[in-house]
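Could someone model adenosine-5'-tetraphosphate with this protein?
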Amino acid sequence: MKKSLSGIKPTGKLTLGNYIGALRNFPKMQEEYENYIFVADLHALTLPIDPDYLRNNTRDLVALYLACGLDPKKTTIFLQSDVSEHSELNAIIQNYLYMGELSRMTQFKAKSASLNQNAIGLGLFAYPVLMCADILLYDADVVPVGEDQKQHVELCRDLVHRFNTRYKKEIFKMPEPIVPSVGARIMSLTDPTKKMSKSGEKGDIYLLEDLTSIRKKIMRAETDLGSDIYFDKENKPGISNLLTIYASLKDISIKEAEEHFKDLHRYGDFKKEVADVVCEEIAKIQQKYNEIINSNLIDEVLKEGKEKAKSIAKMVLTRVQKAVGIYGK
Ligand code: AQP
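Reply:
Sure, complex below.
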C-alpha cells in the first residue's frame, strides 16, 4: 500500500484555509493510503510562541484532526517531538541541502522579511530541512499540502535525487506533492491578495470561531463594486476567493459554482449562501471537537501513534545511517 504523510504546525487557531487546503483532504487519504498525520510541534518553535499557547494548540489540533474525520485505526496520528528520529535524520540530511536553495524559499523570505535581519532564527531558515526529514522518515509516496508548502516538497524531491545519486541506491523514496485543484490557497476576507493564515488577523476564519462571527466576516468580505458573480482572480479577487471557498466545500469545480450563481446579481445573496455552507460545515466540526477535547482519547491516540510512527521511523533512519557510514549500523 502506498504511503501518505502530512502535518500542520500548532502555531495558532486553525483557519478555514488550513481546512480547505490541507486538513479536509487528510481523511480522504486514509481510505487509499497508509496514512501518517502528525502535529508539527518542533516546526512551531521556528517563530517565538508562548509555551502554554503551544501546549493548548497541540491538544486542539489533535482534537480537530479527529473531529474532521481522521480515524486512528486507519491513520497514525502522532507528535513530531515524540519521534526523536525526526531530529536525528535532520542532523544527517542538513549536509545535503544548500544555503543558496534554502534562502530562495518563498516562505522563508515572507516570514523573515518583517524580522530584524540580524536576529533571524536558524530554525526558520532550516525549516524545509526538518520538513524533508518528516517526509522521508516514513517513505511517503505522497504529501497532501496547500500551495504554499509545495515548494518545500519540491526541495525534498531535489534532495532525494541528490542523495540517491550520491549513494547509488534508492535510499529515499521520491515523494509527490498533492495539491487540491480547488482551494489550494484561500485568501483573507478583508484583503483577498493575502493568504488566510493562522497568524493573520480579522479577515481570517477560524475553525473554532463563533458561527455568528464567521457569518459576519463573510457578509463583510471585501469585494469589488460590480454585481456579477464569476471567477477572475485579477480583477475580482474577493468574489473569486468566496467562489473558491464555496466550490471546495461543495466538492464542485469553479465552473460549476459560477453556473450555480449565474442568475444571482446581488453580492449580499451570494455571500449569504457562502456563509450558510461554511457555517454548516464548521458547525459539524465544532460539535465533534467539543465531544473530544476534554476526553482521554487525545492522549490515547498520541500514545498509540507514537509507537507506530517510531517503529517505521527507526527502520528508515537505520537505512540512512548505514548508507552514509555510521559505525555499528
Ligand atoms: N490559506 C490557505 N489556503 C490553503 N491552504 C493553506 N494552508 C495554510 N494556509 C492555507 C495549508 O495548511 C497546511 C498547514 O500549514 P502549516 O501549519 O504547515 O503552516 P502554514 O502553511 O505556514 O500555514 P499558516 O496557517 O499560514 O500558519 P502560520 O500562520 O503559523 O504560518 C499546509 O499544507 C498549508 O499549505
